[in-house]
Amino acid sequence: MDDTSMTKIWAPWRSHDLLEVGYKKWDCLFCGLRDSEDDEKNLILERSSHSLCVMNLYPYNNGHIMIAPYRHTALFEDLSLEELSDMNLMTQRWIKLLKKLYSPDGFNIGMNLGTAAGAGVAGHLHCHIVPRWAGDANFMDVIGRTEVVSVSLASSYKKLKEICEAN
Known about the structure:
This protein is an alpha+beta fold and about 170 residues long. The chain is built from 5 helices and 5 strands.
């Protein structure tokens, strides 16, 4: 093993997130979320007429969320005008909410379409919104090749849900 990298960080408080949120029990993550009834347990922040907003269980940064259409499709070009509009309006809304809550310096926003492009859920397209701050890559990212998210999912969910309901 290379002495300059750390591949594991002990974080037992994350066991709740991994065990309680049942993502692995569904054939499709986003269809399972769509059909689920416990939004808090499944980290669903908001539902609209054609899409949902959910926190990423394995976030790249604090406030990392995903927007997915309800309809199961991997093809961006197959989205109806209503689905496309709804997803984009929800993305726009959450950028505003994340700015208000976290004051990031910027965002990474995008989709990985297909396994070759890095899609973790290749069968159901979704958009990632990742808040970014100047200097948020520190020695852990750069030297240790290890990402650090400083706020628990439960705490983030509570703050994000509160700002969603207030706006």
